[in-house]
Automatic annotation (TrEMBL):
Pfam families referenced in this protein's UniProt entry, alphabetically: DUF6311
Official protein name in the record: DUF6311 domain-containing protein
Bilayer-spanning residue ranges: 12-32, 83-101, 107-129, 159-178, 185-202, 208-225, 237-261, 340-359, 387-404, 416-435
Keyword Ribonucleoprotein applies: no
Keyword Protein biosynthesis appears in the UniProt entry: no
Domain DUF6311: 23-375
Keywords: Membrane, Transmembrane, Transmembrane helix
Organism: Desulfosporosinus acidiphilus (strain DSM 22704 / JCM 16185 / SJ4)
Length: 692
């Protein structure tokens, strides 16, 4: 036990049982139906959860095959992904990954959720006890760490964000450093450094925002408690901190190297997610979203107007917690810890609202402090709403310490009122019952080792046409990563052309319009897929049209079972395709209509001739015209085009042509449309009949 024994062993056992009952019960509330079917149903909704399942087994799969665990070529074929650049939860993969091989990925994910929830409650309990709370108060306060709104929201599927045990462990150990309770600095520093590294490999975003919050905290400590700050850094604490920094650096260094200089590194020059979108609405701090038990029709209607989505609406506190927060600050204001924590909570809340104040989904013109730091390198990809993690932790600590102080009256009335106030927070923070869960489709069984498709897929690069590739990722992990896939759920390094083509793999309402035979053939040739799987959403005419196009291109399916169709790609499939800096977002180039190109791109043909039309940009973009370098076979030539001038190039079957241009322009600099892409010319391709 980390809590000193101040009671008899028999009573201590009763305390432990009491703690476990509360914390396990809280975890069970969130697990909902997944508790009854832990091998086939997951906590939360579908989407990011299945992606996390794939990541859970990836570390040990790489190690067992003698591969680099920081990269994978099993997704985004023929390229790969840099696992440090995505939400790969490498720490959890290292710790929980073996469960994937002993049981299955769904159970491993549910177990990770359960452990995180129970341990988070227990760590919260320890933090409160170490700060001076009496035992039963710290136990009940620990339960609030499991129910804090930040966790409730991200329990819908963000494994990298809901795993907060490492952060809470760092807070717990830091209290010992501040209170000078470290007796073995080397061991303590090693453990603290290792835990910090685990946080780094769990979520780079939380690691970066935690570092920012730490700097703010040190600044507040300096302002509010200068003499206390100077007393912290006695030799034993300096040694502990230096060891922790050294160990953490040693462990995270491989990940940093892979992130910035490893294969498939992504250049995040601009934010991936839309700016000023995933922020907390002012009303969101008071009114519950649909994932809380006390929500109603009116609150749901209001919440639907907020920007972002339910999983990212992290601001909810409820009137009870808000009123108690200000009461706690007023009651304990003479304490320096209160001033520091309350200031940190307010800063976290304000930063979580993003660059502009949002009220009922409406973006006001009131600027907020986040606008000053949102472009910093380590915070550029951070979503403001998630900063409520630190706000929630601070609020729980302040409220519990204030109630503890109130209990010093030592009357029945004070105990009863304290209990009622705690229950009021519990009730307002309770999630909806049953909490959302997701049933893994039984059709996934066909992709596993004993499934009908496994032998035909093993080792073969496969393209999945499906509306739910995230669900497929669960089967890929349970199938022991037997074959690489063209698809990707998330972000990876690809050319603009490859990115456009791979978006066609996601079946949606526009698929019938875009998935023509020309684009299907081009996609297959560009991605070098050897197998194609189609998983229709329904038997609608729309879905039948996609299947017919696949059959006309690839022939009859090799296997048709469980609502899944499998084709083996012929070796001599005819196609015209392009790659490089081509922005064909409207899928028009292969239909003879023009779209923009950048600095370097290429066109290839197999079994078909193609006529390529290149058109210079209008005078407004390039008044002096534009120059191109064209390499076709062994010949090179340079071409100068006047504004709006076009040239036509015939590309024979089974050949390729490369284009390059240094005369690019950025539309936003000219017409201020927000487009900062480097563009050169427009290209269209007319495909000629197949060559016999």
């Amino acid at each position: 036990m980390l809590i000193p024994l101040k009671t008899k062993p028999s009573k201590e056992i009763l305390w432990v049982i009491f703690e476990l009952i509360i914390y396990v019960f809280i975890a069970f509330i969130f697990m909902g139906k997944a508790l009854l079917h832990p091998f086939a149903m997951q906590v939360g909704g579908g989407g990011d959860s299945e992606q996390a399942m794939w990541f859970l087994g990836s570390f040990w799969n790489s190690i067992l095959h003698g591969q680099n665990p920081f990269i994978s070529r099993l997704l985004n074929y023929p390229g790969g992904i840099n696992l440090m650049a995505v939400t790969s939860i490498l720490a959890e993969s290292f710790l929980i990954g073996p469960i994937v091989y002993l049981c299955n990925t769904v159970f491993a994910y549910n177990l990770l959720f359960f452990i995180n929830m129970v341990v988070s409650c227990y760590l919260g309990n320890l933090i409160l006890y170490k700060l001076g709370s009496r035992r039963w108060m710290s136990v009940l306060g620990g339960g609030l760490f499991g129910l804090m709104p930040y966790l409730s929201a991200h329990s819908l599927g963000h494994a990298n964000l809901l795993t907060v045990v490492f952060l809470l462990a760092i807070i717990y150990m830091s209290i010992d450093i501040i209170n000078k309770n470290v007796t073995r600095p080397l061991l303590y520093g090693f453990i603290l450094g290792f835990i910090a590294a685990c946080q780094f490999y769990t979520s780079l975003e939380v690691f970066a925002t935690a570092a920012m919050i730490l700097l703010i905290l040190l600044g507040l400590m300096f302002i509010n408690a200068r003499d206390k700050c100077s007393n912290i850094f006695i030799p034993i604490n300096i040694k502990t901190i230096l060891v922790a920094l050294g160990i953490c650096t040693l462990f995270i260094l491989p990940g940093i190297i892979e992130l910035f200089w490893g294969p498939f590194t992504i250049s995040y020059s601009s934010p991936i997610q839309p700016r000023n979108f995933y922020v907390n609405d002012l009303l969101g701090f008071i009114l519950p979203t649909p994932i809380y038990l006390l929500h109603g029709h009116a609150t749901t209607l209001i919440a639907s107007k907020y920007t972002g989505n339910v999983a990212e609406q992290n601001g909810y506190l409820g009137l009870s917690a808000i009123l108690l927060l200000f009461w706690a600050a007023q009651r304990l204001w003479k304490r320096r810890l209160t001033k520091i924590l309350f200031s940190l909570v307010l800063i976290s809340i304000i930063l979580s609202m993003g660059p502009y104040l949002h009220i009922l989904g409406y973006t006001t013109k009131i600027t907020l402090p986040w606008i000053l730091i949102e472009h910093l390198p380590l915070l550029k990809q951070a979503l403001p709403s998630r900063l409520m993690l630190y706000g929630d932790v601070g609020i729980i600590i302040l409220i519990i310490l204030a109630l503890e102080d109130y209990l010093n009256n030592n009357t029945r009335k004070s105990k009863a009122i304290t209990l009622i106030l705690l229950i009021s927070i519990y009730l307002t923070w309770l999630p909806i019952i049953p909490f959302p869960s997701f049933q893994i489709p039984s059709s996934n069984q066909a992709l596993l080792r004993n499934g009908a498709f496994y032998d035909n897929l093993k080792g073969e690069p496969t393209a999945f046409f499906t509306s739910n590739f995230n669900v497929v990722m669960e089967a890929l992990a349970d199938g022991r990563y037997a074959f690489p896939v063209v698809n990707l759920y998330g972000y990876a390094k690809n050319t603009p052309a490859m990115t456009s083509f791979k978006q066609l793999l996601e079946i949606n309402d526009d698929s019938q319009k875009y998935l023509t035979q020309n684009y299907l053939a081009a996609l297959i040739r560009l991605t070098k897929a050897k197998r194609v799987i189609y998983i229709p959403r329904s038997k609608s005419q729309h879905e039948i049209s996609i299947r017919n196009n696949l059959e006309m291109l690839l022939g009859k399916p090799l296997i048709d079972q469980s609502g899944i169709f499998l084709w083996k790609v012929p070796n001599n499939i005819n196609a015209v395709w392009f790659d490089g800096e081509v922005w064909d977002n409207n899928y028009c180039i292969l239909n003879g209509k023009a779209s923009w190109c950048g600095k370097n791109w290429s066109v290839n043909t197999s079994g078909q001739d193609a006529q390529i039309t290149i058109t210079a940009p209008p005078k407004i973009f390039r008044p002096q015209g534009i120059s191109l370098k064209i390499k076709k076979g062994a010949s090179d030539q340079s071409v100068r085009l006047k504004p709006d001038e076009s040239i036509k190039i015939l590309l024979n079957a089974n050949s390729s042509i490369n284009f390059s241009s240094e005369d690019t322009f950025i539309p936003d600099e000219i017409i201020h449309n927000g487009d900062k892409t480097h563009l050169s010319v427009q290209m269209a391709i007319d495909i000629k009949p197949e060559v016999k």
